[in-house]
Specification:
The structure is a single chain. By secondary structure, the chain is an alpha/beta fold. 26% of the residues lie in helices and 23% in strands. Among the domains are: 146 residues, Jelly Rolls; 64 residues, Golgi alpha-mannosidase II (Immunoglobulin-like, Sandwich), CATH 2.60.40. The strands form 6 sheets. An 8-stranded parallel beta barrel has the order 11-12-13-16-17-18-19-20. A 6-stranded antiparallel sheet has the order 3-2-4-9-6-7, with no helix packed on it.
Length: 584
């Protein structure tokens, strides 16, 4: 009897002890102070810096969130801390949440790889439900790869109990609606063009001669990469980057005169198409006259010297300081001048995230006073840009996920998840630019390799919600990157006219059947078969990223509109390997 009572008392004590443990579904912040070590030779993986038994006595202390001290360093940095979960409500799951890293992360727990993430400034999480349920301290190691500017774990890291994924990733911005974009933008198809590589003539006049082909392709907005004179001082290679602007109020004489540009704009408008200019407001060339006329407009280092932007590779440009109201006024006046005097329809803004949001609000208001339908495209993907003047942002997440699916690096469910996460991150009605390549990345034909899969990947982004982009040369199978520092010309004479015709037909299909307000939903993502399908308006589109044919049944099918789909004798459909098909 005594032993039974003793057993009961022990159980009661255990239960009381558990009851005294804090049970929380609030964010459990990790310690501010972590251990850190640079890895300039990328030796950490080989030497097992993720191992729980590693001696880290020579690692320095670093504060998280933050960036590492050496602002000139780009490469790998390793972080270590102890992590221990509190009790959390029954039925909940536990996640390790990173609000943001700069740029990519690999994560280990007790020496075991538990997650990877690519992308700057993106909130992500790792499921920890079965990893910390012993409530004891564990070793957390994070390797950060920085691709430009100071790197690190630049926003909070914490543990959080949750019931649904939405609880983790929904942002406050996603509860708002983006201002409505101009009507002509809402279902636009964009053509990015670098005049210097578009033809051997490298001229406005040569582009004008190519307008019929560009129009027939199905694009209705031409985005001209910077057309300004290029800085010579400290430039890289010859003739240098167009993003090192020497004069905002001039055109590059290599391309022609202002009169030539005006004729080109008129010709584009005559076809019912629109023009946007690439504007570089974050920095200037070193020989831009503003440096001599207004040296106080520029960012300075500890020695008082004008410095380049934080990206250590951008040595050919000088960083402007938007703390100066005069800088803001100058840039707004300049944008208004281009709208008034050159009759353009909008702008694509380089590295928009490096310029303060309050400037963009003022700039958009000033430009709308001249043209109420002016278009602002941000080179950036932060959700809040849509609430600060921008009509459209880059969907880098879909670019990466589509490339991964086409190369077989990740399952199609990751592509589905990436798209669906947008609803929890971006304002309602936010327009997203969809692409498989642009001038900042390798050509998709080089990235993906397989010709059929490359076409399938582009069809995927072209028919989904958002706005498709073609980077000049992509439509004819260009593999060589149009380097912005030198002068490679697109080999139009070697053009893949079949691909060009196909891409035009896909855009025609989009124009005929898909409206700006057409409903979009991913309806299938089969990892085993590498098949993903979505419904967009009246269209049902299937994409096969595998090397095997896919057989399926489709109810209420009206007709096959496009793609490599065949009806079998038993009325089932077969989608060819590496291909896509669209039914109505």
């Amino acid at each position: 009897m005594r032993s039974s009572m003793r057993y009961i008392l022990i159980i009661l004590l255990i239960l009381l002890q558990i009851a005294c443990e804090p049970i929380s579904n609030e964010k459990q912040e990790l310690p501010d102070l972590w251990k850190f070590k640079y890895d300039p030779e990328n030796q950490g993986l080989l030497e097992g810096w993720f191992d729980r038994t590693l001696d880290r006595s020579d690692w320095q202390d670093i504060t998280v969130p933050g960036t590492w001290d050496d602002l000139e360093y780009d490469g790998f940095g390793w972080y270590h801390t102890k992590i221990q979960a509190k009790k959390y409500p029954a039925g909940s799951k536990l996640a390790l949440v990173f609000e943001s890293v700069d740029d990519n992360a690999v994560i280990w727990l007790d020496g075991r790889l538990i997650g990877k993430h690519n992308g700057y400034g993106k909130k992500f999480y790792i499921d920890m439900d079965d990893k910390l349920d012993d409530w004891r301290p564990h070793d957390l190691v994070v390797r950060i790869e920085d691709l430009g500017q100071p790197g690190g774990i630049n926003k909070p890291v914490y543990l959080q109990a949750y019931l649904e994924e939405e609880d983790l990733i929904r942002s406050e911005v996603s509860k708002l609606s983006a201002p409505e974009a101009p009507q002509w933008v809402q279902n636009a198809a964009i053509y990015e063009l670098f005049i210097r590589s578009h033809s051997s003539a490298r001229s406005f006049e040569a582009v004008e001669k190519d307008l019929d082909r560009i129009e027939q392709l199905g694009t209705n907005v031409i985005w001209f990469m910077p057309i300004h004179p290029i800085g010579v001082e400290r430039h890289k290679e010859d003739p240098g980057s167009p993003y090192a602007v020497r004069d905002y109020y001039a055109v590059n004489p290599r391309f022609g005169t202002f009169e030539d540009f005006e004729r080109l704009v008129e010709a584009i408008h005559a076809k019912g198409m629109y023009v946007i200019l690439d504007m570089v407001l974050n920095h200037t060339a070193w020989d831009n006259p503003l440096i001599e006329e207004h040296p106080e407009w520029y960012t300075r280092d500890a020695n008082g010297e004008i410095t380049h932007p934080p990206n250590t590779d951008w040595t050919d440009v000088a960083d402007l300081s938007y703390d100066s109201e005069a800088v803001q006024d100058y840039m707004i006046d300049m944008l208004v001048w281009w709208l008034k005097e050159q009759n353009i329809d909008g702008f694509r803004f380089d590295v928009a995230e490096l310029v303060p949001n309050d400037f963009w609000v003022k700039a958009k208001q000033a430009c709308e006073a001249v043209n109420p339908d002016v278009f602002f495209l941000a080179e950036g993907d932060k959700p809040e840009l849509h609430l600060n003047g921008f009509d459209m942002t880059y969907s880098w997440n879909i670019w990466q996920a589509t490339i991964d699916a086409a190369r077989g690096d990740k399952p199609v469910s990751a592509l589905k998840a990436s798209y669906e996460a947008e609803a929890y991150q971006y304002p309602k009605n936010a327009l997203r630019m969809r692409f498989t390549e642009n001038h900042d990345k390798n050509r998709s034909h080089a990235n993906i390799g397989d010709k059929q899969l490359n076409e399938t990947a582009w069809a995927f982004v072209a028919l989904m919600d958002g706005n498709p982009l073609i980077y000049a040369g992509q439509e004819v199978g260009a593999r060589r990157r149009a380097d912005i520092h030198i002068d490679p010309v697109i080999y139009w004479s070697r053009a893949d006219r079949v691909l060009e015709r196909t891409m035009g037909e896909i855009l025609a299909l989009r124009k005929e059947w898909i409206k700006a307000d057409s409903e979009f939903e991913v309806v299938l993502a089969n990892d085993e078969k590498q098949i993903i399908a979505y419904k967009h308006g009246p269209l049902l589109a299937f994409f096969n990223f595998s090397d095997q044919d896919f057989e399926f049944s489709a109810t209420n099918m009206d007709s096959i509109l496009y793609g490599d789909l065949k009806i079998n004798s038993d009325n089932k459909l077969t989608l060819a390997a590496k291909s896509y098909g669209v039914i109505k």
